[in-house]
Design goal:
alpha/beta; Rossmann fold; 4 domains; 3-stranded antiparallel beta sheet; elongated
Length: about 450
């Protein structure tokens, strides 16, 4: 049989590379491996002392020649030590590899190497503590990108939603609206292929379930079973193998109220008070301000802890008045935001939202948020500068204005999703955020106002 030496060398080279990859810094393998080898060596020394004592002090018997042969006495001591050491290391390596593979088999994905799984877990586990505040599809898209950089992610979402499936469950079942929480849990899931699609599945009206999504019903039923909405969220996260945490901004049953400037049939301008998140955008006027009723709700304590311990806080993207601001209108959250020593980024939406931010540019978004958080709340404002694609009727790109670059530290880049240009591309946005956090991006558009940056 002729040996294919080229194939043999390639396979040997691949095997050795995989072996040495286990010694990559940061995996935590070397320290425990050395401890294991040292402990095994001590056991070997103890066993060798016992064998030596038997060999020296036992009268000549039939098995002493066998012991002499197995101890390789016909080799020099240095050679024997090398042979026994190498065989021992190989046996330890195979044993540890087999045990780990058996224990980790339930967590391995088909076609993915064990080392890649361990390396990816260690990398994400050492990622920065990121807290994101937002809502809707914008926040979900950003979370899908950020979870590739860190597993220490906390999403803070509003519970003021009163429309659609969430609103109906809120009115009929008395639970907090689960819609935004469901979207974030799905986005942070390690398995977005099938289980997450099932979680997002929405029943038709004819099914007798009034268009509810399975995830909303699941969270609601868990809240009934556990007696706690926050416990229902935690259990849902375990089911979806969520990489991070999702917290409500408050556990109080709050209603979003807005003051909207409208024009009546006689052409007279007047301000109208609108109650309910789903009703605000239907008025068609300019939103002057929003607030919560009852006022001054207490924040969910783990939310405050996450903000205070964060390395990076990202506000946005999301519906400005109906998803983002309701979180910041919880006074404790705003105070924790200011008290936190984390870097603070604001991510502006890619496009306007009809009935909510018509005609807004990036600066309008920032100034609206800072009416609640205060002037100078952000270290960097992130905006999209690709405003060339066609958008659906009724919405426009949120572009950078000159006044914004004079007053704020701005980073601009092509952040749009080519398939849906009114939304962020999750990978582009997440990469930009992490590059800015790690200070790996080129010069920011700080202009002359930030000469020392």
């Amino acid at each position: 049989m002729q040996i294919n030496w080229k194939k043999f060398l390639v396979q040997s080279n691949t095997f050795l590379k995989n072996i040495f990859r286990w010694l990559t810094p940061g995996l935590g393998i070397k320290r425990w491996g050395l401890l294991l080898i040292f402990g095994t060596a001590l056991i070997g020394v103890g066993f060798a002392v016992l064998i030596l004592d038997i060999y020296r002090n036992t009268p000549e018997t039939w098995y002493l020649p066998i012991i002499s042969f197995l101890s390789l006495r016909f080799f020099a001591r240095q050679v024997r030590a090398l042979i026994f050491g190498l065989v021992g290391i190989i046996m330890i390596g195979l044993g540890v590899w087999g045990i780990n593979r058996t224990l980790l088999r339930p967590f391995l994905r088909p076609g993915k190497h064990l080392l890649d799984t361990v390396s990816n877990y260690q990398k994400l586990d050492k990622g920065p503590k990121i807290v994101v505040i937002g809502g809707g599809t914008g926040l979900s898209a950003m979370l899908r990108g950020l979870k590739k950089h860190s597993s220490n992610i906390t999403a803070i979402v509003t519970v003021a939603d009163d429309g659609g499936s969430s609103g109906e469950l809120r009115r009929n079942m008395g639970v907090l609206p689960p819609g935004d929480i469901r979207n974030c849990l799905t986005a942070l899931s390690n398995d977005e292929e099938l289980l997450s699609q099932v979680f997002q599945y929405r029943f038709g009206e004819g099914a007798g379930l009034n268009g509810h999504s399975l995830g909303n019903l699941f969270i609601t039923s868990l809240a009934e079973i556990t007696g706690s909405f926050e416990e229902a969220i935690a259990e849902s996260g375990r089911v979806l193998a969520v990489q991070g945490k999702v917290f409500p901004s408050t556990l109080h049953d709050v209603t979003l109220v807005a003051e909207v400037a409208t024009t009546d049939i006689n052409g007279l301008k007047k301000d109208v008070k609108v109650k309910g998140e789903s009703e605000i955008t239907k008025m068609g006027g300019a939103i002057k301000r929003v607030w919560l009723e009852p006022g001054y709700p207490m924040a969910y304590p783990p939310t405050l802890q996450a903000l205070l311990n964060a390395d990076l806080i990202v506000i946005g993207p999301g519906s400005l008045y109906t998803s983002l601001l309701p979180n910041l209108l919880v006074p404790d959250i705003t105070e924790a935001f200011h008290a936190s020593r984390a870097m603070k980024f604001y991510v502006s939406n890619v496009a306007t939202q009809p009935g909510e931010t018509d005609g807004f540019n990036c600066g309008d978004h920032v100034r609206t948020v800072e009416k609640v958080t205060g002037k100078g709340s952000f270290d960097i404002v992130i905006c999209n500068d690709n405003c060339k694609g066609s958008l659906p009727k009724g919405i426009d790109y949120v572009c950078i204005d000159d006044t914004l670059e004079k007053d704020y530290a701005v980073y601009s880049g092509n952040l749009v999703d080519t398939q849906s240009p009114w939304r962020h591309d999750s990978t582009k946005l997440a990469n930009s955020i992490m590059d800015l956090y790690n200070e790996r991006t080129g010069p920011l558009t700080y202009k002359d106002n930030y000469p020392n940056s």
